[in-house]
Amino acid sequence: MVKSTELFYPTLREVPNEAEIISHQLLLRAGFIRRNAAGVYTYLNLGHRVIKKIMQIVREEMDRAGGQEVLMPIIQPRELWEKSGRWSVYGDEMFRLKDRHNRDFSLAPTHEELITSLVNADVQSYRDLPLLIYQIQNKYRDEIRPRFGLMRGREFIMKDLYSFDIDEKGLDISYRKMYEAYNRIYARLDLKFRVVEADSGAIGGNESHEFMVLADNGESEIVYCENCNYAANVEKATCLSTEREKEEMLELDKLHTEGQRTIQDIVDNFNIPATKQVKTLMYLADGEIIAVILRGDRELNEIKLKNLLACDDLFMADEATVRAECGAGFGSLGPVGLDVKIYADLEVTNMSNFTCGANEDDYHYTNVNLGRDFVPEKIVDLRNAVAGDLCPECREPLSLVRGIEVGHIFKLGTKYSQSMEATFLDPQGEAKPFVMGCYGIGVSRTMAAAIEQNYDENGIIWPIPIAPYHVIIVPINIKNEELNAAAISIYDELSQAGLEVILDDRDERAGVKFKDADLIGVPIRITIGPKSWQENKVEIKKRWKRQAELIERDNVLDKVKAIIAP
RNA sequence: CGGGGCGUGGCGCAGUUUGGGAGCGCGUCUGAUUUGGGAUCAGAAGGUCGCAGGUUCAAAUCCUGUCGCCCCGACCA
Predict the structure, then answer these.
(1) Would you say the C-beta of A146 is within 7 Å of strand B?
(2) Is the shortest CB-to-strand distance from A503 to strand B under 7 Å?
């Protein structure tokens, strides 16, 4: 297929200082990508080959699920975005430009607007539905902070499919099709992944799943149940706390706690475990100050809080504001006698005789009890799930893993069709808004995620379905005519059999070739060395194994085929 | 945007505190000897020290401005 001396893949021995995470470092070192600006990259040949393979699998599965591929423009006129109201909503995250007539355009961060107007213009009847339309294309988002190489670029490749149905029932079917197609895609990519329930966030809608490639240094945390199939982003996971027996209520008491500011201080100096304490956080929700209380060792989930309050702005209150409102600083806040709305995490109802701040500097209350000593405005699930929480489906303990979000599917409902007045005529001749879904896959991110999941100290270990090449042939000494001829004959044989092969014909020492082969992560390496060749044997090594094995020259093709397509 | 760090040959860095020779390792080129896990020796090329102003006899080094990059936070494929 290709000879090393003819292939442009500039490998680096050292880690470029721009790269922090593994996938970014290895993509740069192995010569797959080069940076052009923050979050904007060139894919060199090897990188592009991987991208194309991922795209192909995605494309096949989208087609199989009934999707039709199209290609929409990147440059879109302002009017389109005014219609949905997102010209202003999208804010600085949208790249904007003007043409020579001073007309406004955007570089599309997503394509709901365009697809909706397209379908609206040409679909008038329920008879034309459902429709599943997709594209694989660049997206542009002027991220506040692009980072981690391909993980969060400002220009990135995405597959986006949009479904149009006549009603919720139809949407359920389309959604299910995509859900299954996505499962097939990640299975075919040979990546370990998990599907999780997700918060549908700003895009809106009411049901949403994320597809997470599992990786130890992934950005997202996922809780899942070994017993049933429940899995969810910690942001979304419903927390069931272990039931505890209520103790008999003791008399409320005040404790002098000079200089004690944190939960840990109270643990260390008063021997009260964090699980017997309640912490109080003050927030400004659209300007109104509110209090949130949680068990001492828990983390507040701001998304749950924001969803509960249905507010636009939510910030932690600064200490001056808190002091003015409550008469005490951060270290001494508590719900007792507090004159603002209190939102209590569900778990607090399980607690008795706990300790919390007394809203007076240097004092805490002990033996506090909810109901007797204070009454919250609401008691709801507000904290982040943790390992060991009970599964909301089957009540077994949950486990925690990290993952990278590579796919996200949403039920949009009529959010965009209503704002953009996109309708069809139903059988009764009545105009109805399309019921929509949208389904994204980060193609370039998937490439990075595959590396985060599959690498070792020597470099990338590509899963076979997306490896840039299947085999690399390494003749130990290129000046040895016999070895060279053997290498070329194997190279020709494998190439003609349709395998993707690199022949490392560089005049380099064996060590250099091995290092590069490992770095770029080709799944199979065939080494032709002088000793074994005398016995008409070559060495075959799988990238993910330590040991190589010697095989007969004549068995090479069969052996390689067996590994590539078992 | 807030906080932190960094810009010196292709890559990784030292030099900046205390102003005065632009250096080191890797890579690249030439030749020789090597050839199963990033060889050795000899020689060579390559940098207006991010950019612009200023201070000074003299600036990589001090001052001002500006651009770019990376990390932590809000965002998300």
Answers:
(1) yes
(2) no
C1’ B43 / CA A7, Å: 30
| Structure confidence at residue A200 as a pLDDT band (50, 70, 90) | low
Task: Considering only residues 342-371 of chain A, list those whose CB is below 7 Å from strand B.
Answer: none
* Alpha carbon distances (Å) from A315 to A82, A184, A281, A287, A342: 29, 41, 11, 9, 16
A159 touches strand B (CB under 7 A): no
Q: Is residue A148's beta carbon less than 7 angstroms from any atom in nucleic acid strand B?
A: yes
pLDDT tens for A130-171 read: 999 999 999 999 988 888 899 999 999 999 999 999 999 999
Closest CA to A295 of A393, A402, A379, A198: A379
Mean pLDDT of A326-337: 83
Q: Could you give the residue ranges of the DSSP H alpha helices within A284-339?
A: 302-309, 319-326
Q: Which two tokens stand for residue A449?
A: 């995620």
Which tokens belong to A30? 């192995």
What is the model's pLDDT at position A25? 94
SS (H, E, C) A196-217: EECCCHHHCCCCEEEEEEECCC
DSSP lists the bridge partners of residue A537 as: A552
A356: left (phi over 0), alpha (psi -120 to 50) or beta: beta
Confidence of residue A48 (pLDDT cuts 50, 70, 90): very high
Whether the CB of A90 is less than 7 Å away from nucleic strand B comes out as: no
Going by pLDDT thresholds of 50, 70 and 90, the confidence category of residue A230 is: confident
Q: Are strands A363-368 and A423-425 parallel, antiparallel or unpaired?
A: unpaired
Cis geometry, peptide bond prior to residue A130 (ω within 30 degrees of 0): yes
Measured CA to C1', the nucleotide nearest A24 is B70
- Structure tokens, A74: 């990147």
Q: Of A12, A11, A6, which Cα lies nearest the Cα of A505? A: A6
CA distances from A510 to A504, A506, A528, A551 (A): 10, 10, 10, 19
CA pair distance A463, A543, nearest whole angstrom:
10
- Give the integer Cα–Cα distance in Å for A380 and A345: 5
Other Cβ atoms closer than 10 A to A101: 5
pLDDT of A246 higher than 90: no
Q: Which of residues 10-29 of A touch strand B (CB under 7 A)?
A: 11-18, 20-21, 24, 29
> Which residues does A199 contact at the CB level (< 8 Å), separation at least 6?
A208, A233, A235, A236, A303, A307
Largest CA distance in chain A: 93
Round to a whole number and report the distance in Å from the CA of A446 to the C1' of B2. Answer: 31
